[in-house]
């Protein structure tokens, strides 16, 4: 079966992680499972380990850390998993994916194996780019933000649409109907903050780059206009810089 290295961590210093696990990786036998928010997470791992199986995972879990070592979970739990592109033998890749899925099944994890995990990655980053950033910048919950002014919902929709524009530019098949689905989903839920807002309040570095920065840079690379995304990413980058500096003291 080979070793399984799981990365269910906050994606803060993503480029540094491959070297931190390098001694444990057997490129021909290991599989790396990345369980994180954001898009582009797999890139530094693929660059470091070009022949290793990478299993990309998108998880939806309601949880908050009340204090160190104490995590409160809600009833929400779901995960999608799939392979990140590799030129290796696809039979071997599929078997390693099945092996990892068997571990999740044994642990009674709710999950689905999907054919193109980038669809689920980008769908969740559309969600996170909106709710994480806007609840953090305003320190409001989702419902309070959307009802804060007549322009709040249109601005949220513009932000989501711009991220979808970039996803489409990356050949990820996501439709604009996702915007209505995500707005409807948040309105059907009780008012919530976000993990980014919690990190900000606690003075912890935030997942700004992996959620907002990758779509921002891809938009620039592809010549796609993302004015709302640009503004929010630049402001949060400045805010996050302060938190990063404070965390290093």
Descriptive tags:
Rossmann fold, 5 strands, KPR-Related, 2 domains, oxidoreductase, KPA_reductase, five-stranded mixed β-sheet, about 250 residues, 2-dehydropantoate 2-reductase activity, globular, 2-dehydropantoate 2-reductase, alpha/beta, N-(1-d-carboxylethyl)-l-norvaline Dehydrogenase, domain 2
Molecular structure report:
With 249 residues, the protein is an alpha/beta fold. The protein has 2 domains: 4-115, NAD(P)-binding Rossmann-like Domain (Rossmann fold); 118-248, N-(1-d-carboxylethyl)-l-norvaline Dehydrogenase, domain 2, CATH 1.10.1040.10. It is built from 10 helices and 5 strands. It has helices spanning 17-21, 43-48, 90-106, 117-138, 142-146, 152-169, 177-188, 195-202, 208-222, 227-247; strands spanning 4-7, 31-35, 53-67, 70-83, 112-113. A 5-stranded mixed beta sheet has the order 1-2-3-4-5. α4 packs across α8 (195-202) and α4 (117-138) packs across α10. The longest helix is centred in the middle third of the chain and has 22 residues, at 117-138. The N and C termini lie far apart (42 Å).
């Amino acid at each position: 079966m080979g070793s399984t290295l799981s990365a269910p961590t906050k994606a803060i210093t993503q480029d540094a992680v491959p070297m931190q696990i390098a001694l444990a990786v057997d490129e021909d036998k290991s599989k790396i499972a990345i369980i994180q928010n954001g898009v582009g997470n797999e890139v530094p791992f693929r660059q470091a380990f070009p022949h290793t199986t990478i299993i990309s995972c998108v998880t939806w879990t309601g949880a908050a850390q009340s204090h160190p070592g104490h995590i409160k979970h809600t009833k929400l739990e779901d995960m999608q998993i799939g392979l990140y592109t590799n030129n290796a033998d696809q039979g071997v890749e599929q078997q390693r994916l099945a092996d990892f899925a068997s571990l999740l099944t044994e642990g009674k994890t709710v999950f689905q194996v999907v054919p193109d995990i980038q669809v689920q990655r980008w769908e969740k980053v559309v969600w996170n780019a909106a709710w994480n950033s806007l609840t953090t910048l305003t320190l409001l919950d989702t419902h309070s933000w959307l009802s804060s002014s007549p322009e709040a919902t249109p601005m949220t929709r513009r932000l989501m649409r711009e991220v979808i524009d970039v996803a489409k530019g990356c050949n990820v098949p996501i439709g604009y109907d996702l915007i209505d689905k995500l707005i409807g989903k948040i309105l059907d839920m009780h008012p919530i903050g976000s993990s980014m807002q919690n990190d900000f309040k606690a003075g912890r570095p935030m997942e700004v780059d992996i959620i907002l920065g990758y779509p921002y840079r891809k938009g620039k690379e592809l010549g796609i206009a993302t004015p709302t995304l640009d503004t929010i990413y630049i402001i949060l980058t400045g805010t996050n810089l302060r938190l990063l500096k404070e965390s290093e003291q």
